[in-house]
Each structure stands twice: as structure tokens, then as C-alpha cells.
Design goal:
With 644 residues, this protein is an alpha+beta fold. 36% of the residues lie in helices and 28% in strands. The strands form 9 sheets. An 8-stranded mixed beta sheet has the order 17-21-22-29-26-25-23-24, sandwiched between helices. Strands 2-1-7-4-5 form a 5-stranded mixed beta sheet, with helices on both faces. α3 crosses α4. The N and C termini lie far apart (79 Å). Its cofactor is Zn(2+). Belongs to the class-II aminoacyl-tRNA synthetase family. InterPro entries: aa-tRNA-synt_IIb, aa-tRNA-synth_II, aa-tRNA-synth_II/BPL/LPL, Anticodon-bd, Anticodon-bd_dom_sf, Beta-grasp_dom_sf, TGS, TGS-like.
């Protein structure tokens, strides 16, 4: 037997007999052998005791390599399984995943694991880590594993998906499991880990399957890295719009009445209404004609547009009306706005024709993907479509981009960049097949950005199926990269729907369609704002802008109501807290609810026609006349709460 191992630098090592990945590492350098975590054999992660006996390309991973972290976390997940099975012999296991977010293991038993049991499990893991017991890579007959897991319905189902007679598995003492690419050679290398949380998860992500208990955890090679990650997770938890939405009573989602279908409570609805009115006023001022179109449309329209062919899996099933008509909950608004355009004969004098709508759409998101307001099944898109002549494309593009930048300024959105999203010419399934159209539109989009002198990145494969687009990518408060706004050029839909206008020459011509979204969907945008502001919305957006607290309801209640009326008639959102509670409690409650202004009214204020003002986040109290306060809050709102 002779074979060659090719290393990442291109050098080769020849061997006459088999060798493990770990011994290969030691043969390269003693220090590498000690630092080795796992190997990558022909692009696949393998443990250190994996046997090499054929030509292969091999890279040795140490804790300096990014993929080594996945190996560490998978090993922690495996050790968790082993100790959990020992503590709960009737426990069944579903899927397990280790990635950049940490790891999770799906579990099931009659009395599901609760979050209060995690410290006990973590202590058992620490004991296993201290023992430094060997984690052994073994190949086991599939039939043997089927016998071992015959009472575990989830493992049995996973085994059915494996074609080979021998299965790669790992053993720790008398515990064995499969489905891991590579694990560490012993438990002693898993030193810095933490079990984080518990959540429900449907088996294989299907709502028709049993609900399992998903245990989340993470692991790092260094304690400092774990501490930093836990600090980051605490910040994420503090900013999570779902938590804030519950604490401030903004919205709720109840799977019992419809998963992924948010109910907007009074305060959340107020924030949304302010945003919607702002957007509509901005767009109307910019020349858009706002319309209302139905959420239902004949399925044939989506077949013509191409949505049925490209997005069928993300659309709800069509509704058979019984007379041959098939209606579909719309996944996009563009075919609806096309009908607005087609309803009249259009002339070049009508162009650009700007149509906008806060259009409700529906997407069939899988249950496992739903998340608060960010991933929902019903959403309202700040949508707009402009129909232009060819020579109007670049000027309209610049106009839309200016509108987006003005909106960003008012919402204080500063962390973003521009991405030109092109098609992947090799992906003929996803993208409309017309090379000339794609080359023309991509060149036009790039030219518009170059003319404006703006920096951008280019991304192949991120275009819409009908045309290239400019995506404006923002950083969320949790550090995720997300598309906030988009401008898309479309030559395809005008062709498919036969759109025309009469030109100066009296002949029919084809318009270009420009799709654009300023702030995306109301749901995702308000989730974004909630996390960015940490629930402390600027005064112009806050659902309650001022909370009035009378020191004594009987003595000062009438004056409190007078102040409320004075503020309310000027359009400010104000409430009086006249509950029979101590004043200190009511002030703390106002701060907890993150109300921008708390006004305390006692004898001095009533006698002097003044208010005692406390801004959110401060302990400072300032007494001022009611007129001065009205001027202050008015300036705060009109400036979009920007510092002057």
C-alpha cells in the first residue's frame, strides 16, 4: 500500500501504511499534533482518529481555524446528549446542529426538559469534561444502530435516510450517536461552554409533526471569548423586539389563532400609524399616487408575472371559487399596480407614472422560520412602482434614491451600504432568460450609481427573477445584515403584461417598470426600529409622548386633565395616570414604559400654570411654564427628535 497526502501548501507526504489524521499532524510538526482539533479530508471534516489509506487532500485544523469552532460545539452537543441520556433514560433525541451561532439538540420525553434544569445538566457536563474521557470515532452497522434506537422514533427516522450499511458514529462510554462530521478526541478539550435556553421546535420543522424541546448552548476555546459572547447575547436579549414588544404591550402573536399573524396592540398600532402617515405624506409630496388594491387576485395574473413559477412554494394554496375561478392571496403587489396602469390608455405625457400603496401581502413561511414581526405570514409592504420611458430611468432612479436618503435621515438610520444585485447567469431556473435584457438593465443600474458617484458592492445571484436591483443593506441592532430598501429595474413584466404608452411619434412603446420599497414591510421595519431604539422611541414616534401624573388625584386631577387637553388638541399623544398608586411607583412605571416626557403636577404647578418635567432616562426634574413645555415638545417632534 502506498498513497500520497497533499497538504494545503501543495506539498506532498507519501506513506506505505495507513495513518490517522492525528498522527499525520504530528508527522508534520510535534506542535501541530498537540494543537490539532480535527482534519479536513477532501473538503470534509474528519476526527483526528479518522484513518487515511488513500490519496487525499488534507488540512489540519487548530483552534485558530474558524471551522474548528464547529467541531468544538458539535462535541459539546454530543457530551450534552450523553449526560442528558444518563440523567433521563427515557429521553429521545431529534436533530442536532453546531454552527456559528452555537449548538442545539432537539429532545423529547413525557415531561420535557425545563430551563430550570439546565444548571444541573451543565454541572453533569462539567464533570464529564473533567474526566477527559475518550470520544471514539467508530463505524457501526446500520442494523446495529436500528436495534439500539428502536424505541426512539426520531433517531429511527433519521437512520432510514442513510443509504450505506455502515454508519459513522461516536462513542462516549456506553453512549453512542451518529450524524456528527467530526468531534474532538476527548471531553477534556471542551472547557468553556454554556447551556443557554430552551424552546419548542417542531420535528423536522413541520407544524404537523410533534413539538420537541430544543436545548441551546455554545462553546469556545477561550473563556474570554465565551464571556464576550454571553455579554453580546445579553445585549441581544435586551434589544429583542419580541421581548420589548411584550413588555411595552406593542403586539402579540398567538399560534392558537394563527402562527405568523401579528396582532397590533394600541401602542404598537400607534407607532405603525405614525410611520404609515409619514411615509404616505412623503410619497404624495414626491409625486406618487396612492392606491388601494385587493389582497386577492386571479391566479392567472401570477402565472403571467412569473411569481407562480418562481415563488410557488412561498405562496398560499389557491382558493377554488367553484366556478372555475382560482383566487390567490397575493405574495407581491406589482401585478396589482400593473392593473392600475393598464386600466387607461397611457401617453408619454403620463410618464413617469408613480403608483404607491401600503399593500398587504401573504407568504407561506414555514412554522420554524417565523419570528415575531421579522418573519411573518401576513405583511404590509411600503411598495411603489414607477412606469417610465427609457430615457427617464436614470433620473427616476436618482429621485427614488434621494427619497430613501431623506427618510433614513428622519429615522436616524446611518449604518448602511449599497449593493448592486445582479443575476447569476448560470442559474437558469431562478432568472428570466433574456441575456440582452439583463445586460442592458444591469449596465443601466450600474451607470446610474456611477453617475451619482456612490460607492457600492456588486453581488451576483441576488437579483430579483425579473431584473437587477440596488439593495440598501443596513446593520440591525443585533449586528445582522438586512435589506432595508430596494430599487429594481424591470423590462420583463411590462413585456409579459403587454404594457404600452403612446409616444410623441403617435406609436405604441413599451414602458420600463421601476419597483421600489423605501422601508420594506411595516412589520420588519418596526421590529428594526424597536431594536435600534431599544424600545425608547424618539418623541415623534413614541406611542405615548407625555405621561401626566397628578400628585393627588382629588386635588390636582382637574388641572392634570386641563394640561392633557391642551396638549391633545395640539396633536400630542398624552395620558393621565390617575391610578390609586403611590406617585413614586407611577413615575417609575412611566420610565419603565420609556415615555419621553413625564409631567408631575402638584400645588406649585397648579397655582403657577406650570409643569414639572422629567425626560426619559434622567433623574433631573425641571419646572417650566406649560407654554414653554409645549414649545419644547413641539420642536422635539418637528425635528424628528434630532439634536439641534
Amino acid at each position: 500500500m502506498s498513497f500520497s497526502i497533499t497538504l494545503p501548501d501543495g506539498s506532498k507526504k507519501d506513506f506505505d501504511s495507513s495513518i490517522t489524521v492525528g498522527k499525520l499532524a504530528s508527522s508534520i510538526a510535534t506542535s501541530l499534533g498537540k494543537a490539532a482539533v480535527a482534519g479536513k479530508v477532501n473538503g470534509q471534516l474528519r476526527p483526528l482518529d479518522y484513518v487515511l489509506d488513500n490519496d487525499a487532500e488534507v488540512a489540519i485544523l487548530t483552534d485558530k481555524d474558524e471551522e474548528a469552532l464547529d467541531v468544538l460545539r458539535a462535541s459539546a452537543a454530543f457530551v450534552f446528549e450523553a449526560v442528558a441520556k444518563k440523567l433521563y433514560p427515557d429521553l429521545h433525541f431529534g436533530e442536532h446542529v453546531a454552527d456559528e451561532g452555537g449548538f442545539f439538540v432537539d429532545t423529547d420525553k413525557d415531561d420535557q426538559i425545563k430551563v430550570g434544569e439546565l444548571p444541573r445538566l451543565e454541572k453533569a457536563m462539567q464533570k464529564a469534561v473533567k474526566s477527559g474521557e475518550k470520544i471514539e470515532f467508530v463505524q457501526v452497522a446500520k442494523s446495529e444502530l436500528e436495534e439500539q434506537f428502536k424505541d426512539d422514533p426520531y433517531k429511527s427516522e433519521l437512520l432510514k435516510k442513510i443509504d450505506s450499511e455502515m454508519v459513522d458514529a461516536y462513542r462516549l462510554g456506553d453512549f453512542i450517536d451518529f450524524g456528527f462530521e467530526a468531534l474532538l478526541p476527548n471531553t477534556g478539550k471542551i472547557k468553556h461552554f454554556k447551556l443557554l435556553s430552551v424552546a419548542g421546535a417542531y420535528w423536522l420543522g413541520k407544524s404537523s409533526n410533534p413539538m420537541l424541546q430544543r436545548i441551546f448552548g455554545t462553546a469556545f476555546f477561550k473563556q474570554a471569548a465565551l464571556d464576550e459572547d454571553l455579554k453580546r447575547r445579553a445585549e441581544i436579549k435586551e434589544r429583542d423586539h419580541r421581548t420589548i414588544g411584550r413588555d411595552l404591550d406593542l403586539f402579540f402573536v398567538d399560534p392558537k389563532v394563527g402562527a405568523g399573524l401579528p396582532y397590533w396592540m394600541l401602542k404598537g398600532a400607534t407607532i405603525r400609524r405614525v410611520v404609515e402617515r409619514y411615509i404616505i405624506d412623503r410619497e404624495v409630496g414626491d409625486g406618487y399616487k396612492h392606491v388601494y388594491t385587493p389582497v386577492l387576485m386571479n391566479l392567472d395574473a401570477y402565472k403571467t408575472s412569473g411569481h407562480w413559477a418562481h415563488y410557488r412554494d412561498d405562496m398560499f394554496p389557491p382558493m377554488d371559487m367553484g366556478d372555475g375561478e382560482m383566487l390567490e392571496l397575493r405574495p407581491m403587489n406589482c401585478p396589482s399596480h400593473i392593473q392600475i396602469y393598464k386600466h387607461h390608455i397611457r401617453s408619454y405625457r403620463d410618464l413617469p407614472l408613480r403608483v404607491a400603496e401600503l399593500g398587504m401581502m401573504h407568504r407561506y413561511e414555514k412554522s420554524g422560520a417565523l419570528s415575531g414581526l421579522q418573519r411573518v405570514r401576513e405583511m404590509t409592504l411600503n411598495d411603489g412602482h414607477t412606469f417610465v420611458e427609457l430615457d427617464q430611468v436614470q433620473s427616476e432612479f436618482a429621485k427614488i434614491l434621494k427619497l430613501i436618503m431623506d427618510v433614513y435621515r428622519d429615522f436616524d438610520i446611518t449604518d448602511y451600504y449599497f449593493r448592486l444585485s445582479y443575476r447569476d447567469p448560470k442559474n437558469t431556473d431562478k432568472y428570466f432568460a433574456n441575456d440582452e435584457m439583463w445586460e442592458r438593465s444591469q449596465k443601466m443600474l450600474k451607470g446610474a450609481m456611477d453617475d451619482l458617484g456612490l460607492d457600492y458592492v456588486e453581488a451576483e445571484g441576488e437579483a430579483a427573477f425579473y431584473g437587477p436591483k440596488l439593495d440598501i443593506q443596513t446593520k440591525t441592532a443585533l449586528g445582522n445584515d438586512e435589506t432595508m430598501s430596494t430599487i429594481q429595474l424591470d423590462f420583463m413584466l411590462p413585456e409579459r403584461f403587454g404594457l404600452t404608452y403612446v409616444g410623441k411619434d403617435g406609436e405604441e412603446h413599451r414602458p420600463v417598470m421601476v419597483h421600489r420599497g423605501i422601508v420594506g414591510t411595516m412589520e420588519r421595519f418596526i421590529a428594526y426600529l424597536t431594536e435600534i431604539y431599544k424600545g425608547a422611541f424618539p418623541t415623534w414616534l413614541a406611542p405615548v409622548q407625555a405621561e401626566i401624573i397628578p400628585v393627588n388625584n382629588e386635588a390636582h386631577g382637574e388641572y392634570a386633565e386641563k394640561v392633557r387637553q391642551e396638549l391633545a388638541k395640539r396633536g400630542f399623544r398624552v395620558e393621565v395616570d390617575d391610578r390609586n398608586e403611590k406617585m413614586g411607583y407611577k413615575i417609575r412605571e412611566s420610565q419603565t414604559q420609556k415615555v419621553p416626557y413625564t409631567l408631575v403636577l402638584g400645588d406649585n404647578e397648579m397655582n403657577n400654570g406650570s409643569v414639572n418635567v422629567r425626560r426619559y432616562g434622567t433623574d433631573e426634574e425641571i419646572s417650566k411654564s406649560l407654554d414653554d413645555f409645549i414649545n419644547e415638545i413641539d420642536a422635539d417632534v418637528k425635528s424628528y427628535s434630532r439634536e439641534n
